[in-house]
Amino acid sequence: MTTIQHNALAPQDRFGSLVAARLAEGTSDLEYPVTERLRAARMQALARRKGVKVQTASTVSSQGGAAALTFGDEGQSFWNRIASVLPLIALACGLVLIHTIEDDRRANEVAEVDAALLTDDLPPAAYADPGFIQFLKVGGN
Question: From CA 139, how far away is CA 68, in angstroms rounded?
Answer without folding.
Answer: 59
